[in-house]
């Protein structure tokens, strides 16, 4: 996507345990890869190659895991967008990744949890991650080889970037999208240049149990039956 049409997606993470995003350390000689295969279905449905993603810390994650509030956990430029049927097929090159938790049965055209980890094993997560059978409209995976992941060492947004700082303070459960002509996108240009001066870190190589998910508050539970920490 040309820079003139590039968009920047910004959202808050309530969990950061290696499932979404997933950016495990690659074997020697192979390129690093960040994937967004589960959670954030609206972003996965709409983001295209060339678009950018900023994942920032939420208050819940700051309280639960001690992350700095409103800081950048990861930044990525989308390089490829693949169908979940290809990502989750038993023959894919991604089956070793912690976020490859589903398996598509080609003859039936239906997906099921692989059962290799407890991550999103509750069937309610499948609807959010993939969408409803047989269309699986949420079934898109974003791949990036051009990223920076910082995890608990999240990078604070410089105070001079006032619009992005305000976004970090006011953003709720959803996400924001800035087009290339927006003032926020121009601030994002400066932020990406700053972040790319830093070396990347990597996510955990596995997600143990269902610890990826934080339980919602009782008030939130009245609004939705899902127990996912993803939004």
Task: Give a description of the structure.
This protein has helices at residues 41-46, 59-65, 84-87, 123-130, 162-170, 183-195, 218-223, and strands spanning 7-13, 34-36, 52-57, 72-77, 80-83, 102-105, 110-113, 140-144, 146-149, 175-179. It has 231 residues and is of the alpha+beta class. It has one domain (3-83, 137-223): Roll (ph1033 like fold), CATH 3.10.590. The strands form 3 sheets. A 5-stranded mixed β-sheet has the order 9-4-3-1-10. A 3-stranded antiparallel β-sheet has the order 2-8-5. The protein has a two-stranded antiparallel sheet with strand order 6-7. The protein is globular. The two termini are 26 Å apart. Residues 212-228 have low confidence and may be disordered.
Brief summary of the model shown:
The chain has about 230 residues and is α+β, with helices and mostly antiparallel strands. The chain contains 7 helices and 10 strands. About 25% of the residues lie in helices and about 20% in strands.
End-to-end span in angstroms?
26 Å
CATH topology category name = ph1033 like fold
Please, what is the average pLDDT?
89
How many distinct domains?
1
CATH class label: Alpha Beta
Largest sheet: 5 strands, mixed
Shape: globular
Give the tally of β-strands: 10
Low-confidence stretches: 212-228
Q: Beta-sheet strand percentage? A: 15-25%
Secondary-structure element pattern, one letter each: EEHEHEEHEEHEEHEHH
User: Level of helix content?
Assistant: 10-25%
Q: What order do the strands of the largest sheet run in, or round the barrel if closed?
A: 9-4-3-1-10
Number of helix segments? 7
Computed CA radius of gyration, to the nearest angstrom:
17 Å
Pairing-aware structural class of the strands and helices?
alpha+beta
Question: CATH architecture, please?
Answer: Roll
């Amino acid at each position: 996507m040309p820079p003139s049409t590039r968009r920047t997606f910004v959202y808050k993470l309530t969990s950061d345990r290696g499932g979404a995003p997933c950016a495990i350390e690659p074997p020697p000689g192979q390129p690093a890869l960040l994937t967004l295969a589960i959670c954030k279905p609206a972003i996965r449905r709409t983001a295209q190659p060339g678009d950018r993603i900023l994942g920032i810390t939420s208050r819940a994650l700051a309280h639960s895991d001690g992350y700095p509030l409103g800081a950048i956990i990861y930044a990525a430029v989308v390089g490829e967008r693949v169908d979940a049927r290809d990502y989750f097929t038993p023959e894919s090159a991604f089956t070793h990744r912690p976020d490859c938790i589903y398996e598509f049965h080609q003859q039936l055209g239906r997906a099921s949890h692989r059962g290799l980890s407890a991550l999103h094993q509750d069937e309610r997560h499948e609807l959010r991650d993939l969408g409803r059978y047989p269309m699986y409209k949420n079934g898109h995976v974003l791949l990036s080889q051009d990223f920076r992941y910082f995890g608990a060492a999240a990078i604070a947004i410089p105070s001079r970037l006032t619009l992005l700082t305000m976004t970090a303070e006011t953003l709720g459960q959803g996400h924001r999208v800035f087009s290339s002509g927006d003032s926020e996108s121009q601030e994002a240009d400066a932020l990406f240049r700053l972040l790319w001066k830093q070396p990347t870190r990597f996510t955990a190589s596995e997600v143990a149990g269902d610890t990826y998910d934080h339980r919602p508050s009782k008030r939130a539970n009245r609004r939705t039956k899902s127990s996912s920490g993803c939004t």
